[in-house]
Amino acid sequence: MNDRVAVVTGAGRGLGRGIALALARAGNHVVVNWTSDQASATQTVADIQALGRGATLVQGDVVDPATSQTLAEVAEQLGDLEVWVNNAGVSMLAPVVDTDAADLERMLAVNVMGTFHGMKAAAQSMLAYRRCGRIVNVASEAGVQGFPYLGAYSATKFAVVGLTQAAAIELAPAGITVNAIGPGTAETDMVAAERLAESGFTHRSVDEVRQDYLDAIPAGRFCRPDDAGALVAWLAGPDAAFLTGQTLLVNGGAVLH
Predict the structure, then answer these.
(1) Domain ranges of the chain
(2) How many CB atoms lie within 10 A of CB 59?
(3) 15 C-beta neighbours (distance < 10 Å), count
(4) Exposed/middle/buried for residue 53 (C-beta within 10 Å: 0-12, 13-18, 19+)
């Protein structure tokens, strides 16, 4: 086997789709993980195939460690698993004092444990086959700086950064890099839900909330899926071989780190 394979969790839409497409453009066969939106995931596969690369759908919730094991097994059947992107994530927006414990537990399960399971499965496969692989975790600018109403979400993304740093040190001798990206505000379904929630408890319109987010970005626009994809593709490529344990923000200057 010599086909280079990348796994992307939560790749059906949003930033995950942008990442999957960028990795396909870089020459990878992509294993597209999805949980609930089959139509979007199928479209991602079609978009990848239109680029002349292979794509395979695998349904599963990253909260279940069996999902990551299945993703690794499918990838190894297709070629050489060299890239793994832990992108799947959820958010619930609320003031800390009003945050439901169940919401925080759900975010911990998906954002932290899901990333942990993915990192573990990827590293075990790469170590077993002695590959100098690339693991990229999707954190957030909220993973290096706290924001109002995002305290619980931010805590989970800070945890992702910590996992990234520890794994990078441990896996560096094997030639495996582990990095994180921190996207800024994007026009995704998840962010749209956040704006609606913020509108509800601040009594401002969704448009006003959106404008506040936009005004906080010096570059004057929101993060796009292609922005995240380009950064991940670079981290997964040969030019980033000596970069590990870092969290790179792609946010138009909204947070400097």
Answers:
(1) 4-184+223-250
(2) 14
(3) 28
(4) buried
126-130 contacts, C-beta under 8 A, 24 or more apart: 126/81, 126/82, 126/174, 126/176, 127/171, 127/174, 127/176, 129/76, 129/80, 129/81, 130/174
Tokens 């010096």 sit at which residue?
218
Q: What value does the mean pLDDT of the chain take?
A: 96
* pLDDT value of residue 224: 97
d(CA 207, CA 195): 9
Which tens digits make up the pLDDT trace of 111-148?
Answer: 999 999 999 999 999 999 999 999 999 999 999 999 99
Average of pLDDT values for 33-50?
96
CATH superfamily of this structure's domain 4-184+223-250: NAD(P)-binding Rossmann-like Domain (3.40.50.720)
Considering only CA atoms, which of 123, 145, 117 is closest in space to residue 135?
123
Residue 96's identity, in one-letter code, is V
Pairing of strands 80-86, 4-8: parallel
Task: Assess whether pLDDT exceeds 90 at residue 1.
Answer: no
Whether 34 shows a pLDDT value over 70: the answer reads yes
The residues that are catalytic are 153
| Res 206 pLDDT > 50 | yes
Distance separating alpha carbons of residues 78 and 55, to the nearest angstrom:
10
